[in-house]
C-alpha cells in the first residue's frame, strides 16, 4: 500500500537560492513499516532539527524531534546519520514516531492509542533551522511533509461481531481464503481495542479483537471460560477461517485467559499461543466476582512512587506455590511464546515467567515454550513504533478508580522490544499457522 512521493515546502532569501527539500518515503504505509527521511539542499555542516507532530483522536498534540548536522553535500539521511539530541539520540530511522510525547502543557497521564482503525495516523514531519527544543509552532519550517500510517491494509474487511453473546470486531484479509486466525485479547483496561487485530489481518491472518470486561456488572460471564470458548468457536467456524489453524494472543490479563484456554478447554484448542506481559495467576475457573475479590485482597500490596504512580507488580508476589491458585501450564500441548519486559512495573512478569518455565519443565513440555525477555522494557509492549508511555491514567477493574499506573520501561529499549518482538510474533504465527497449509489458502 506504499505510495512514494517527495513533498517540500520552503522559503528562499533570493530567487536564485535553492530551497531545502524534505523527502519521506513511503508517505503512506502500515504502522510497522519503516520510512526513509532525507533532507537535501542544506548548507554543508548545517545544524537542523527534524520535528514530527501528531494531532490525536483525543484532541491532544504529540511531538518528537532530533538534532542533525548535514554532511559535506548538505544532506541529512536519517537512516544513516545520528541525532545529536532531542527526544531521541543516535541512528534511529523511526525515532520521530516511537519517541512521540505530549507537547508541553498537555493533560497529565496521556497514552496514545488508535481508536478508529478505518482512518490513518497522520504525522506531520518538518525540518527547522538550528537545533531547537521548543517553540516549533512559532517558527517557519524549511520544509514539511505529511505521512499516513495505517493499521488497516487495503482490502481488509472489518466486520462487527454480535453473535451468541460474543462482542468484538473481525478483520479479514483480502483474497479467497480460508486463512489462519488469531483471537486477540487486551488486558484489564477492558473495552474493545482493535488496532493490533487490524494489523494482524494486514499481515494475512483473520483476527478477532474481542471485547470483554466492558460491562461486567451486567454481563459477569464475560470473564469466565465459557465466554472465551464461545468467542473462539465464533472465530473458528467462520467460513474464511481454517478451523484447525487458530491461535490465541493475550496481553496482560489476556495472558491469564490465553493460558486458561490452552490448558483446560476441551472446545477451544489453539494451534499456538502468544502471551505478552502477563501471568499464569488468576485462572478463569472462578466467577468474575471471585477474581475481583482476589485482586482486591492483593491490592494492599501495591505501592506508589514519589510521583503517586501505582506500582502493581508486588500484588502477585510472592508467586504462590498452591496449584489451585495458578494455571496448570504443564497441561499445555501447543507451542507457546511469552514476551516480557524486565522493567515491567505492573505485573511481576519475570518471576511469573520463571515459575511457568519450571512448571513446564517438571511436566515435560518445556520444549513448547519460547521466551522473549527484554531489558529495560516495560509492561505496554505494543506493535512497533507505538510511543512509549511509562505511566498513564487507568481505571482499575476491582474498584473502578482512576489512578496513574506505572507501566515501566525506558524509551529506547522499550522501542527496541516492540520492534523486535513484533517481528518474532509474526514469524511465530506464520510458522505454526501457515506451515503445511495448502497453497490455495496462502496469501
From TrEMBL:
GO terms for molecular function: fatty acyl-CoA hydrolase activity. The active site is at 252 (charge relay system), 344 (charge relay system), 379 (charge relay system). One of its GO terms (biological process) is fatty acid metabolic process. Gene3D superfamilies: Acyl-CoA thioester hydrolase/BAAT N-terminal domain, alpha/beta hydrolase. Pfam families: BAAT_C (PF08840), Bile_Hydr_Trans (PF04775). InterPro entries: AB_hydrolase_fold, Acyl-CoA_thioEstase_long-chain, BAAT_C, Thio_Ohase/aa_AcTrfase, Thio_Ohase/BAAT_N. Residues 225-434 form the BAAT/Acyl-CoA thioester hydrolase C-terminal domain. Residues 32-163 form the Acyl-CoA thioester hydrolase/bile acid-CoA amino acid N-acetyltransferase domain. Belongs to the C/M/P thioester hydrolase family. This is Uncharacterized protein. It comes from Alosa alosa (allis shad).
